[in-house]
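User: If only I could read backbone structure tokens as easily as an amino acid sequence. Those tokens are not coordinates but codes from a learned vocabulary of shapes. Could you go through the record with me and say what the backbone is doing? Here is the record:
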Amino acid sequence: VFRKILISFLVFVAVIILSLGSLPLWLRVDHYRPQFVKAVAPYVNGKFEVGKLSLSCWSGLKVSVAGLNLMDPSGASVVSSENIELKIPFLSFLGGRPSLTVVLKAPQIRISKNQNGKINLIELINVPVGAESKEIGNEKEATKKDSEQPFWFGRFITNAELNFSLADADVYYEDLVSQEKQQYKSIQAEAKSFSLNKPSNFKVSLLLESRMGSDWKVQGPLVVLGSFQPKRMGESLHGGKLEIKANLDKISIDSST
């Protein structure tokens, strides 16, 4: 009897795995890419492009984005990334602690401040007419829905974990008035098991190259370590404690005068 139960269970698991593995064959997530771009477009004062979307379900739910590019009205790229991945292991759902992993590969961010004091990254944000009043109504509706959510749903979200990985990122900043230029190259950032109900750690490392005016230059590797300790009262989050430590031992400051 035990053998039959075991065989039946293994067959059931195999059917589930094969069903999930074949999901991308009939569910074409890239089919929804135009709708996604169309939904984001009203909030962007420029142009927004997303590469092909692909889905994989063998070891968990994995969505890959083959490139992203956010451009200003002139067509100059402000935010771009070669590849973005979102992963959710199936076992994390079964354990009641859903785990989301976000991976950004080789993103580039170009920030500039023009003669009028406007920053291009901020100018990209566009708020459609009537969106503010609609957002207030949505917040009230969302608050009402949240109060109607079952108890287990809040616990499910509270136990969720976020893993974030940023690989080989480059950030460029230029002030067209003061002629100040800053470059942050090869940024590696990692945050593991970030959660609202337990302490979390993160690490950021980068190569700094900053020029202040025409005389001073700051450069060298920079490592930042941080931790976050959430403060909870029952099921609610009431702030937390953030600690950050930076290693500046290898940073050099030079003057050309």
The radius of gyration is 23 Å. Residues 2-21 form the longest helix (20 residues). The helical segments are 2-21, 23-26, 33-40, 90-94, 120-123, 131-148, 151-158. Residues 231 and 237 are 6 Å apart (CA to CA).
